User: Fold this.
Amino acid sequence: MTTATASDWRAKSANQTRLAFGQALLELGAREPRTVVLSADTQDLLGIRGYIERYADRFVEVGIAEQNLIGIASGLATTGLRPYACGYAPFITARSMEQVRNDVAYANQRVVIGAAASGISLGVAGGTHHALEDLALMRSFPNMTVIVPADVDEAYKATLATLDIDGPVYMRLGGRVEEPAVTDPAAPFKLGKAVQMRAGNDVAVIACGALVELAVRASEALEREGIKARVLNMHTIKPLDRDAILAAAAETRGIVTAEEHHLTGGLGGAVAELLAQERPTRMRMVGMPDAFAMVGPTVKLRAKYGMSAEGIAAACREVLRAR
Amino acid sequence: MNESREALLQRLQTQALQIRRNVWRAVRAGGSGHVGGSSSAADILAALYFYRMNLRPKEPKWPDRDRFVLSKGHANAALGPVLAQAGFIDDAIIDRFYGYESPFGMHPDIKLHGVEMCTGALGHGLAIAMGMALGARIQKQSFQTYVMIGDGELHEGSNWEAAMTAAHYRLANLTAIIDANKISQSGRVADIVGVEPLADKWRAFGWAVREIDGHDMGQIVDALDALPFDGERPSALIANTVKGKGVSFAENTYLWHSNNVNDEIYAKAMAELGAR
Assistant:
């Protein structure tokens, strides 16, 4: 049974992955009667009021209490239900990290964590509300699947795809900032399989989340200079698509990673760990340097720290120049 | 066949004594262990597993089983023996405490039959148990959920998040048992950071509260029979207990929160527990 037409959920998602997640939950509520959605006073943040209206008996509000949220979700999962725990990325990971590690990852419970406002997507909120270490934390846990959708179509499809993931999932979502459409709406979501957005054999940009669209624009700009930059949308950080990365390393002259995350432990770290062992490759990493971000509008902040089409293009030129 | 109250209490006391002996047997096998908190919990565990709870040990994942979460996971030296005595696991596992690749370590392992959650990081169990109780409500199941928490464990703030939420949802199918043995790892709870008045705290958080002597089997059985204490609220059973109960030199001292156990100490303990 399908409850939402494509135009309906897409319009309600308003180019924000956090809202597409909420729209997909409405669909999951219809498809899977074991679906339960939990909120940590984040009903609008994740766009779940439509779900709550239709499935009030399969909704749990736990209040501003992320440790509680994750523990309850784990307990629900042990009874055979399929909990989707919604919260702010900075709090749902760091505050409740022990619950995520023990009650969800170690106990290997089927809990999907919907983490909105990741990275510096709430730029104006300041460092307390930025999540620039969440990928590092989440991908370090055995059993955990880590997904970073690039736009609303990918977020919607990836959320539906969690139906078939037998274990915990961390779904990294954006904040109150538009993420322009960049993925092919007709393409199915394949967990753990990178999507090639642009072909090229000079350099390869491996990006995730909002940085995918910026990487595509960087590749277009580089093409005008005669540089062919491959762009891979690495929407699954764990399990990592080793084959796509090793092929990019073999077929180009260098790798650039791009993510809205600290340069330690995120996508760049994951790619570097793989290449250092399997195929040492010249790399540059675009992301948040070792500093807490200042306050400001997200797009301006991203650019300040190099997370822009220009910043990615510059990293590509640099990796090609370096010897 | 109706068991008289006298016979019931006698049987449960014998089973609790057997749990205590098995606690010492496990920690001797491991070389050390959390004797104190395992022994304080033994009488309540006996009444839960051998009287109150609806279980099918040969069908550990039976969907309608009652749930028990040992939030004070360091009392696993008692939970393992309970599961063995109930028939969930082989008795020989008790001798593999702390062993290489053993499913019976310091803290409960969800992979072991009968263990509902891997606990031990304190302050986790109440929220998890609340999720189980909510799961029963959502799926219209009648099973009951019990969680045992230490009094020292109540220092962890996450307990109070869950306590507040369970009351908000009026989870009368949830019972929290506080094993109030008054002593934590470094000393008396009252000296570390006081948690009293416990009953008032739980009442203020919206729970129906009853306080008992956690070693008086008659009081334990009566309290379990009275559950839920209120049809509209979750129940908190505060059991006043003695850390290390049953062996004089281990009683009422933080030194036996966890301690080394060699053959000589083991023999002394077992002599006090009336084992030949």
